[in-house]
TrEMBL record:
The keyword Transferase applies. It comes from Streptomyces smaragdinus. This is Mycothiol acetyltransferase. InterPro entries: Acyl_CoA_acyltransferase, Bact_Acetyltransf, GNAT_dom. It is an enzyme of class 2 (transferase). GO terms for molecular function: mycothiol synthase activity. Keywords: Acyltransferase, Transferase. PANTHER family: AMINOALKYLPHOSPHONATE N-ACETYLTRANSFERASE-RELATED-RELATED. Its EC number is 2.3.1.189. SUPFAM superfamilies: Acyl-CoA N-acyltransferases (Nat).
């Protein structure tokens, strides 16, 4: 069941991603990769993503819908069109590293944050993050101690959203592939 919210005059539903929604996963990801902030916000290019076979997108949707090591959340408008998404990766010490550094404690890692321009600025990002963090902190095994993310030091728009959602800089940074630094931000378990 999804969480409904009315922002402005538009009605949105925030919910977990479903396994059969690979076409929507692909379409929203490609839209995000065309965004002006994409070079500093995402680790892949539009061209690389576009060239991926359907099987890649099907597997990605299946993993994010399962909610075991990964859980995807989406925001839909009143017509069922996806207007935003965020994905939670579950990271444990000694586990696989998808991005950045090895987890020192069980934690969530938010990735794939994107909100279409027409849906920005009205609180939708906060609602997506609330759903993702509620799921992450409700896990019993592993019990996550924090949720982190990385933001490029020049992506002020994204960092502003993350701060509104309670994330603070941890002091840990990584060199970004596009120059500059990726800054770790985190929220500790409430």
């Amino acid at each position: 069941m999804g969480l409904g919210s009315s922002i402005g005059r538009m009605e949105y539903v925030i919910r977990g991603q479903r396994v059969d929604e690979w076409r929507e996963v692909k379409e929203l990801r490609l839209a995000g990769l065309l965004d002006e902030a994409a070079p500093i916000a995402f680790l892949e290019t539009y061209e690389n993503a576009l060239a991926r076979p359907d099987a890649f997108w099907q597997e990605r949707a299946e993993r994010a819908a399962a909610g075991v090591e990964v859980k995807g959340f989406v925001a839909e408008d009143g017509d069922g069109r996806w207007v935003g998404s965020v994905t939670v990766l579950v990271e444990v010490p000694g586990g696989a590293v998808e991005f950045a550094s090895q987890a020192k404690v069980p934690q969530g890692h938010l990735v794939g944050v994107y909100i279409r321009p027409e849906a920005r600025g009205a609180g939708l990002g906060e609602k997506l993050f609330a759903a993702a963090m509620e799921w992450a902190f409700a896990l019993e095994e592993p019990r996550l101690e924090r949720v982190r993310l990385y933001v490029h030091e020049r992506n002020g728009r994204a960092e502003t959203l993350y701060r509104r959602c309670g994330f603070v800089r941890t002091g840990h940074t990584l060199p970004a592939d596009v120059g500059g630094l990726e800054v770790e931000m985190a929220v500790e378990r409430p």
